[in-house]
Design goal:
The protein is α/β, with parallel strands linked by helices. 39% of the residues lie in helices and 13% in strands. The strands form 7 sheets. Strands 18-15-19-20-22-21 form a 6-stranded parallel sheet, sandwiched between helices. Bound molecules: thiamine diphosphate and magnesium ion (MG).
């Protein structure tokens, strides 16, 4: 049977150009195979077949303009076409559900018709939150206890929920609190016990504590300027130890490994453990924070500085929590796309309670809950202090965080009190202990741990006679020993166990600890703890005794490291535990396979002229990506990341083609389901559509860009953003990406201060290249023509993903439509594009006066137009250089200059800028759509006179033409400035410049655009 394939609904577009035929008569095609590519002035989309069979005839040709309903192909069909298929099951289900709802709504309607007066008013009125009837309260509480005893917690919880719902329906609009009392979430009887040897573990923990502190003290004895932190790890030692001994599985050839984001300032603790494990030696510990000579240990977790050790940079606070959330989400993405196995791997993130003040720390917790990231566990070390003082002196950080996390949908486990409290809490029959626990604020809790047992008895237990009585048989010493949950390995173990088994939501463990635990008078729970990096002899002796370390006074005075014999119980134990968990942590390794760069012909279409067709580089990029999706090596590895701008960039075709990742698939029929580019969400979707969330999108990009090491699978992330909302918005994450050795593409679309015309000051980017240049392993380009983009992109694929260089690319693309020429035949062109400049055109008619014109991005075209005017109207010759990267040229220039200065007696090298311009004639005039500083970067690397134009100042909205005039980068200004430059260099008379300034109505007295 012969069938017709027609142009489907393409939304608002009509008469859209066919730019590619992907099938020919005789081809066998399947449903969903792309058959033609059509392109509007905004985007290009492939049309998939809805019929399978043999192509009988192709009824259109390249260049035709088509609209909905036009005939594309005739197909000898082998199956029913999609349009003839019965209604899909899902759709049928949706219809049935809708019908059912309609029916039930009708029923409700009848009840609503009852007169309002008939409704019995049973509104519950709460007059005061004080107990007005304690006996009644007692009744209710006893009933509840009976339910718990008879039918368990779940039933009790259900009844409470029902009660609250009922109260709400009856008009008691009292919000349900997200908080539970200030006690541990896990009851002592529900705690899962560790099978570890607690004695040995305590000894090991004490040794690690000692060595971690010793490292910092020793470094500062030698060089007081080095700094370091003792108090952070002192408060977190147990939290780390329990994880290391029992939970965190390392990566090896059988398992992908858990991923642990360590709190930046606790780095000494990780080094101290690695020392006992035999992974670091004393000499290395002694070079803590002395990294200039190789082998030094970095102050904080920095994969760039210790690439075999650290996996995640976390010290810039707030980044760790976000990165960990998106890492866990990305892990699920890889699993759902079938790219890695689901091995039950977890992402653990250790955070400071002060760090939770960063908006980023809490900013993405909603996503974690929404995406049901049960592979994610946050541990917040609530030592109640940050750098200057208490985190919440007048409140309770644990309660505050509990509310935020539970409200967002997380599983919250509070680990507040240690085991010594268990019996006291069990004996708190009157509830007064729980009451004081709730009433006491963090400032008081902190102060108590800076004092002693007598103080705690008086200030805490002394508040009510009932609690005073509760501790009457305890000595002050006993009271002092009442420990906090985060220092109790049993409580921590139970929490980790429960967190690891939790299903359907992420978990946060809020562990209460003491900052500077064990540091004594100088450093325990005092406001200055964070900065303490020196301990005097008395403090050190106290520390030794506090943790029962087998060190002599002499050893303590010398602050000697302590490592038990290789055959000791402790060393054997620590190694055995790690062997059971698959190896050591942290450890950074890479076993991913490179991706073969696509053949050059994939890019060939970008090397020929577009003829009369105008397009933007953004559109060229999207076409290129569409083509890349046809390369079988590259296609599955692409991770397009978009923060709610796909339509801005003409990428909506990707929705249908590769789907949007959605962990639960698509539960609704999209409004635009009949259209070609309809919004398609899928569990195996490839696009990460992040919503209006640049920091989240960048975190996703970092996860994908480091996939080669964290998941041993090389991926190609391409994050496309409005250039202004790129580096400027997420600069610190980009810096962390450099540290992480990310590999991938960042695309600053709609770039340029004058090229994005109407959007105004906060949208128009004239400086992102300068920010990009600050990151040493970020390679950036500002291409003008589609062949430049193709050469740059392919080289990026080759360098990063085939040759595995630890670099990433920042490429700006624009939204200005123009004709793109074919790639020049010059054999050096490709090399020039990649190094940063090449000669694109020369005007040589008069051979009298010459000027070198350097243009970048869209302003290159203004340069080219100006050159023509200079030639035709002023008889000035010129050479025009397309500068694809001032940043790369500068890097080369710096390196060459440095080499020459350090090797005065050797052959002097020549910078690439000088190789290009050294033997040319005339002064240089350079311009880009960025600040002058962009082109000024190469000024030192040429001996010629150099002038630059740029878009310094605040952007504003207007037409492109007016903006270029305002910033003085349009062709008229370039002509006028060019003549002025030549006059200044005494190559022509100044009257020509003066005339041009007049001719183009340029006001010489206009203030600098930076002042407007
Ligand atoms: C973005 C950022 N701002 C400031 C700092 C400086 N800083 C380092 S540690 C610290 C206090 C940390 O307190 P907290 O998060 O509670 O960690 P703790 O040491 O108490 O475990 C500050 C302000 C930083 N590292 N990163
Ligand atoms: Mg803190």
């Amino acid at each position: 049977m012969s069938d017709k394939l027609l142009v489907p609904d393409i939304g608002e577009f009509e008469k859209v150009e066919v730019i590619e035929l992907l099938v020919k008569p005789g081809d066998e095609i399947d449903i969903n195979d792309p058959v033609v590519t059509i392109e509007s002035d905004k985007s290009s989309v492939e049309i998939p077949s809805t019929i399978s069979g043999k192509v009988e005839s192709v009824n259109i040709k390249v260049g035709d303009k088509v609209s909905k309903g036009d005939l594309l192909l005739k197909i000898e069909s082998s199956q029913e076409s999609l349009s003839e298929k019965p209604i899909p099951k899902d759709t049928e289900k949706i219809i049935k559900q809708a019908e059912a709802t309609l029916k039930s709504e009708k029923k409700e309607d009848t009840t609503q018709q009852k007169p309002a007066e008939e409704k019995k008013q049973t509104t519950i009125k709460v007059t005061s939150d004080k107990d007005i009837d304690p006996l009644e309260t007692q009744d209710w509480l006893e009933s509840l206890s009976a339910v718990v005893e008879k039918d368990g917690n779940q039933r009790a919880h259900f009844l409470i929920k029902e009660l609250i719902n009922k109260a709400y329906q009856e008009g008691a609009n009292i919000p349900y609190t997200q908080n539970t009392p200030y006690i541990n979430t896990i009851r002592p009887e529900a705690e899962v016990k560790s099978n570890g040897d607690q004695n040995i573990e305590r000894k090991i923990r004490s040794i690690i504590r000692w060595n971690a502190a010793a490292m910092v003290v020793r470094a500062n004895k030698k060089f007081p300027e080095l700094g370091g932190h003792i108090g952070t790890f002192a408060s977190a030692a147990t939290l780390y130890d329990v994880g290391m001994n029992h939970f965190w599985r390392a990566k090896n050839n059988k398992f992908g490994g858990d991923l642990v984001y360590f709190q930046g300032h606790s780095a000494p603790g990780m080094y101290a453990r690695a020392f006992l494990e035999g992974r670091l030696n004393e000499k290395q510990l002694d070079s803590f924070r002395q990294e200039v000579k190789s082998g030094g240990l970095s102050s904080y977790p920095h994969p760039w500085l210790m690439p075999k050790f650290w996996q995640f940079p976390t010290v810039s606070m707030g980044l760790g929590p976000m990165l960990a959330i998106y890492q866990a989400r990305y892990m699920k993405y890889l699993i759902n796309r079938g790219l890695i196995k689901d091995e039950g791997r977890k992402v653990w993130a250790f955070l400071g309670d002060g760090e939770m003040d960063e908006p980023e720390s809490l900013g993405a917790i909603g996503l974690a809950a929404r995406e049901k990231l049960d592979n994610l566990i946050f541990v917040v070390n609530c030592n109640l202090q940050r750098l200057d003082g208490p985190v919440r002196g007048n409140g309770k950080i644990i309660q505050e965080l509990e509310g935020s996390f539970r409200g967002a949908g997380w599983n919250v486990i509070k680990v507040i009190w240690g085991s010594y409290w268990d019996s006291l809490i069990a004996n708190d029959k009157t509830g007064h202990l729980a009451k004081i626990m709730n009433e006491t604020v963090d400032g008081e809790y902190q102060a108590m741990k800076a004092r002693d047992g007598a103080y705690v008895r008086e200030k805490f237990f002394g508040k009510y006679p009932e609690t005073k009585e509760l501790v009457s048989t305890l000595s002050d010493k006993d009271i002092w020993r009442l420990n906090r949950g985060g220092h109790d390995p049993h409580k921590v173990y139970a929490a980790y166990d429960q967190a690891s088994k939790n299903k359907g939501s992420p978990t946060v463990i809020l562990a209460k600890t003491i900052k500077g635990y064990g540091m004594g008078k100088t450093g325990e729970s005092v406001n200055t703890t964070h900065q303490t990096k020196k301990l005097d002899v008395d403090d050190l002796l106290y520390y030794r005794d506090r943790f029962d370390l087998p060190l002599t006074d002499e050893q303590v005075k010398n602050v000697e490291y302590f490592k038990p014999d290789e055959n000791s119980q402790e060393i054997k134990y620590i190694k055995e535990r790690r062997m059971n968990l698959g190896g050591f942590l942290p450890e950074r390794t890479t076993y991913s396979k490179p991706i073969k760069a696509p053949t050059k012909d994939i890019f060939d279409f970008m090397k020929v002229s577009t003829g009369e067709k105008k397009m933007s580089t953004t559109m060229a990029l999207v076409r290129m990506l569409t083509n890349l999706l046809r390369d079988k090596n590259v296609s599955p590895k692409l991770v397009p990341i978009i923060p709610d701008e796909a339509r801005t960039f003409g990428m909506e075709g990707f929705f249908q083609k590769i789907g949007i990742y959605a962990h639960e698939g698509q539960k609704y029929e999209p409004e635009d389901s009949a259209q070609l580019s309809s919004y398609r969400e899928e569990k195996t979707g490839q696009v990460l559509e992040e919503g209006i969330n640049e920091a989240g999108a960048m975190s996703s990009w970092i996860a994908a860009a480091t996939s080669y090491t964290n998941h041993d699978i090389e991926m190609i992330p391409i994050y496309i953003f409005y250039s202004m909302f790129g580096f400027q918005r997420i600069g610190d994450l980009a810096w962390a990406a450099g540290d992480s050795q990310a590999r991938g593409f960042l695309i600053g679309a709609t770039a340029g201060r004058t090229t994005l015309a109407g959007e105004g000051l906060q949208h128009q980017d004239g400086h992102s290249h300068l920010i990009a240049s600050t990151i040493p392993n970020c390679i950036s380009y500002d291409p003008t023509f589609h062949y430049e983009l193709a050469v740059i992109f392919r080289e990026g694929l080759r360098r990063m993903h085939e040759k595995n260089e630890n670099i990433f690319y920042y490429i700006t693309t624009m939204n200005e439509n123009y004709v793109h020429p074919g790639m020049p035949k010059d054999k050096n062109c490709e090399e020039g594009i990649l190094k940063g400049m090449y000669k694109i055109k020369e005007f040589n008619r008069y051979k009298k006066t010459k000027i070198q014109l350097l243009g970048s991005g869209t302003i290159l075209r203004e340069m080219m137009a100006a050159a023509e005017i200079l030639q035709n109207e002023y008889q000035i010759d010129s050479e025009i250089w397309s500068v694809t990267s001032f940043n790369e040229l500068r890097r080369d220039g710096m390196e060459v200059e440095r080499h020459n200065l350090l090797n005065p007696d050797k052959n002097q090298k020549i910078s690439f800028v000088e190789q290009c311009l050294g033997k040319t004639e005339g002064p240089i005039l350079a311009a880009s759509d960025y600040m002058r500083m962009n082109s000024d970067q190469i000024r030192p690397y040429t001996n010629k006179s150099f002038y630059s134009l740029g878009t310094d100042g605040f952007g504003r909205s207007d037409t492109r033409k007016n903006l270029r005039k305002f910033f003085e980068v349009d062709k008229e200004h370039i002509v006028a400035y060019g003549l002025s430059v030549l006059a200044k260099e005494q190559l022509i008379a100044s009257k020509y410049a003066k005339e041009a300034i007049k001719k183009y109505n340029i006001d010489g007295n206009k203030p600098m655009p930076t002042k407007l």
